[in-house]
Structure formats: structure tokens, C-alpha cells
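User: Fold this; C-alpha cells only.

Assistant: Input:
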Amino acid sequence: MPGFFPCLQTVSGQAMKNPVKFMIPMKTLIINGENFSDLQGFYEEINRVFTKDLAWETGHNFDALNDILYGGFGVFEEEPIILTWKNISKSKTDLGLNATKTYYENRISANGINTEHFRNKLDELKNNNGQTLFDIIVEIINRHNQIKFQQEN
């Protein structure tokens, strides 16, 4: 049943001898591509939707995104959720080839760690073999089995 997840009734945290199975509605979280036009804006949208009442700021990187999607940042814990990405076509363009090239070029010019990694990723992208920022984000979302991912144009 879409939008619901099964639970077994318990008493004081202990499984009952004859548990009653029931369905709990899944929380729906919505990110909207109209609310951002670049990677920084995407991270701000994720923070707006997935975090609540934090006394600190989450990181703006793919590792932090992955962590946020596990839950526990004030909006949901580990229960299954529905994540709807509205105006995804706009986001696919905004976080597409040009934005990804710029992202890798900025990482390379910063001369930080993993410079060679980012050069390789840029080369892959130029040879039509690489992932865009959009592709990477969708891949990260899809790794989370507790998230039912829905895309809307």
C-alpha cells in the first residue's frame, strides 16, 4: 500500500503473543526545484526540509546529504518516508553539465585534497562518461531504502 508502512503492535516495547498488524501513514517531505538554482541552494533546501531545531548547521557536501537522509535531524528518525522532488526538470538542468564542470573546476583550482580525483571526474564528464551533480544527488537518495523517492515536473 503506497504511503503506508506496516507495523506490529507491541505492549511496553515487547512483542505480543498474537500481534496485530496495522499500517502507519508515511511522512511526506517535499523539496522544490523552484526554491533553488545551484548546489548551495539545493543544500539550503535540504536543510529547510530535513532539519528542525538544530543548534548547529549541517555540512553542505555529499557526505552530509547522505547523513541527513538517514534521519535523526528533527524531522524524521529512521522510519520510512516519501520524498517528493517537485520541478525536478528544472533541477536537472540547474545541477547539470555546466554546474558540474564549474564544481569540479573550482575544486581543482582550490588545490585541496583529492585534486587528482576531481581532475579525473572532470575528464569523465567531458568525455560524456561522468555523472552530473544531479545524477550524484539522485544516486545518494536512491541508496536509502527507507525513502520512497518520487519525481514531479
